[in-house]
Amino acid sequence: MTTLVQRWRAHSSLTALAGFAVAAVLLFAVAPAVLSDFRLNLLAKFLCFAIVAVGIGLAWGRGGMLTLGQGVFFGIGAYIMAMHLQMADAARLGNDVPEFMEIAGIRELPSFWTPFASGPVALLGILVLPALIAAALGYGVFKRRVKGAYFAILSQALAAALAILLTGQQAIGGFTGLSDFRAFFGFKLSDPVNRQMLFFIAAGTLLVVVALVRQLMHSRYGELLVAVRDQEERVRFLGYDPANVKIVAYVVAAFFAGIAGALFTPIVGIISPADIGVVPSIAFLIGVAIGGRTTLLGPVLGAVGVAWAQTALSEEFPSGWTYLQGVLFIVVVGFVPAGLAGLWPLLKGVLGNRLRRPADPPAATVVEALPEPATEKVESR
Question: Model pTM?
């Protein structure tokens, strides 16, 4: 039995390595060769969404936590990066404050901007601050056994509150947000080579994130997370605290969202409250649901596919994409709960059942099996 388990794990590891190799070739060799600079930049943006989706897949698909507020952590990482880039541009031009502050009449740099003038401090804030906020929020929510729809509503309310708060803060750009970044840690963003570098950073980050989540899913913690999702009270009876298990998954998802937001800012060139509110948070969730929330690659493919469809179809049907997105979400949740990634196992099972079905007996055998006519039996008597 042990040998069979070891062989299965070795086969699974080899399959995963082959999958990562194929993904690396597609992202680092094929995509730059066949896509224009504009399309490559769009794909980099979609990869940022995919990073958020991987974290949602862990928290929602494996942990059962309907996270409707990932825009909060996405926005924290995005705004920290934007503040650093703005101050770096101002220092390069010899200004005391960024240009948008001069236009708004702000002559003194706000105190909460000052720490992020340093690149290492900004990177540390991107990595640590979303995780710390998620840990504090998760501790207060999960320890009180808040779950289900109540947790979803609470997380969505946080995203709405953050968007409203940022809209009224002129020191962070207000409704228009922060934009017009000239450089990314010394590299000019107007240079196509540097923009391609950003794509490679986003692609590499996505592969690392997927590898980390796969490791978590196949670990003892991953099994415990699924057990908490399915039988929380039984897990508590066995001596584990389900709240701690949920907090870890929630913090990991927030950590990924903060990194994705930080990459999104230089790739897109703007961050505003419209990018982190309720609507973007729900869009993250829709991509995960359509792709397949319980699988590893489903959230990635769903996020990229939905974002690509939104970009392509909104050009043809500007007012109809929102309705189409809603219809897709309803169809998937109602008829294909496992998402598009769950269609292949379903089709595989149907085809397997048909192939295993015994063939009809030949006609001669059927004739021989028929009972004798009643008249013959009477004559024999």
Answer: 0.86
